[in-house]
Amino acid sequence: MATQPRQILLALLGGSAALVVVHALGRFAFTPLLPHFLADGLVDLQQGSQLATWNYVGYLLGALLALVLHTPSRLRLGLGLPLALLLNALITLAQCFASDYALLLVLRLANGISNGVVFVLAPALVLEWLASRQRAGLSGLVYLGFAAGLLLSNGLANWPAASLAGAQRWLPMAALAVPLALLGAWLLARLQLPPRPASGTEKGTAPATALFDRASTPLFLAYAGAGLGYILPMTFLPTLAREQLPSGDPLLEGAWRWTALACLLSIPLWNHLGARLGDRRALLASYALQALGAAAPLLWPGTSGVLLCALLVGGTFVGSVLLTQRLARSLQPHQGPRLSAALIALYGGAQLLGPWLAGLWVGHGGSLTQSFALGAGALLWALAWTWLIPVHFLHKEIQQCPT
């Protein structure tokens, strides 16, 4: 099927806009905003951990909901995706007026649910659309918008910091999220998947192949470790910088900027390495670097450790996501969206443990820095299980990811 470059660009733009709204502005903007919320007295560190945890509970619930909407027929109809995307932007707007902690918990939970639905369905729709046109190797580029959104969210959190306070700090995020949600919903609604031959999967019944088999089970176990491993740096790195660095250090506000910049620059690299070397080999390298990044604040406390953590975790965690999703589809191409939804649900469940355990540790007198040891260990777990994915599936992986 001949596809114009403009069509591919618009498909990637639609998916990217959706991920900017739900993941960069709706979710991870909380990371650079948290130090300001602490200084404003809106929340304390334990409450901040609880807000993050409830957001991840919602993310898990949203990913599980997306399992119901995973089938190609439902993806063609776009059921749930535009509504969840627009709802997420409106929740970000509502947070601008929420100073009550209990209300914030509810809103962060709802944000997570809508985020989980969109984060599963938008990339899955774009991947299936590209795969139907033999361009699956471009699918990782859908995450470029999210990485750019991380960089932008750092600026939106810090540039107007002196003129905003408390819940009002969400206003710049909401001002961008609402129009981007409208754009993303419109572009994604234009994507049409070709009908597949009649089968149980297409009719919405359970596929004949189980999700867990000899090839996919190690991938699931690795992805659980990835979810737990990356979430501590991606939630608390700017806060950790304030624990380790002196007043006035450029990394107090710059740590998240370096994280976002590394993420943005690394996505084309991991997309290319996966297509060139095979997604499994690239994923092994990604987890090794990510584990070193999570451990860096423990091994080299201070400027070096914080900067290495920002660069190595920021430069690998989205690579791990796109490589895992593409590898999963190559292992079971007939049920790619279902497998993607199940993996993200597992990833979301594993993320719950990170902020919760960090909050417990801090509440019992430990430091935030010490809690990063858990993330490093989880990423080594992910590395080990990725190594155990059967090598004879590697040739399928490369064939499914043409450049």
From TrEMBL:
Gene3D superfamilies: MFS general substrate transporter like domains. The keyword Membrane applies. The keyword Cytoplasm does not apply. Residues 7-399 form the Major facilitator superfamily (MFS) profile domain. One of its GO terms (cellular component) is plasma membrane. The chain crosses the membrane at residues 48-69, 81-107, 113-131, 138-157, 169-189, 219-236, 256-275, 282-299, 305-327, 339-362, 368-389. Keywords: Membrane, Transmembrane, Transmembrane helix. PROSITE patterns: MFS (PS50850). GO terms for molecular function: transmembrane transporter activity. Pfam families: MFS_4. It comes from the Bacteria. PANTHER family: PTHR23537, SUGAR TRANSPORTER. This is MFS general substrate transporter like domains.
